[in-house]
Design goal:
alpha+beta; five-stranded mixed sheet; elongated; binds zinc ion
């Protein structure tokens, strides 16, 4: 789903998109000429790979997502909550996919390995 930066208004515009099992739902609101605030929530079932045993597993996902979108180059590059869309087109699929892959890149443990971890910790 793509939305032209200029088309976002100063009143909240709701949106909803779904990629695979994950839904991103929320609103877009223009804050100033070069800034749009995304206020939403990710929900669904995320497919993850356990980093210990390599098993695929599913994890229910429900997490708020607040981002600032801009069509300008951001000078403060270490602010991860700002995403640049320099061509003036907000790509919501890109946002959803990058959020999902950043969660998938964590050290995710399946429930079996999680409980093994707990037992391991209790021995000490
Ligand atoms: Zn595992």
């Amino acid at each position: 789903m793509k939305i032209f930066f200029d088309k976002v208004s100063y009143s909240k515009k709701p949106f909803k998109l779904r990629v695979d099992n994950i839904t991103l739902q929320g609103s877009l609101e223009k804050k100033d000429y070069h800034k749009v605030e995304l206020d939403g929530e990710l929900s669904g079932e995320l497919e993850l790979i356990c980093y210990r045993c390599g098993e695929q597993f599913y994890k229910p996902l429900k997490s708020p997502l607040t981002l600032t979108l801009t069509d300008r180059v951001v000078e403060i590059s270490d602010d991860l909550d700002i995403i640049e869309f320099l061509d003036g087109v907000i790509d919501l699929d890109f946002i959803l996919n990058s959020e999902v892959s950043s969660i998938q890149n964590y050290y995710n443990l399946c429930s079996n390995c999680k409980s093994e971890n707990r037992e391991f910790e209790q021995e000490f």
